[in-house]
Amino acid sequence: MGILDIFKRKRKEEEDTLGNPLENLKKGDIVELEGETWEVVDVAEYRYKGSVEREWEIRSARRRGFLSVEEGKIYFFEEVDINSIKPNLLSHYRRYREPPDEIEHDGKVYRLKFAGRAVYRKSSESWPVEVWEFISDDGEMIDVEVWDAYEIETFKGRELKEWEIEGIFRRS
Q1: pTM
Q2: pLDDT of residue 22
């Protein structure tokens, strides 16, 4: 490998990063987002029938969040207290085994957009999960992950534009 090959490889890596800024993120990489510095602490994926959603768990000095890429769109989510959502999702799931048509969080109504099953993969392990996606009229989203009749997690998020990711710094 000659010196020109090193420059060609570096240019190719930069082009790949510009194509989708998250696609090559790894543990330890740093992301500048919303005026905060976030470190990638874990990488996972959701495998649905016919599609895969990649997810990066990120942490700043004060917050924990998740970046994901699905069908070329970038999303940012943070966990919200399940008790702040109406109706009570745990009771609803135990009774009906399906999502409600709409939910309410902080006085805002979110309508069901998608409900389906996936296999969640992280490291070399995998677990089945049911995912419900709700969206409000202004585009905010609530994602509900049903792991079993006793464990449900809820996340609030939105679609990001690429320009909102202020910087990505790779760890060697």
Answers
A1: 0.84
A2: 82
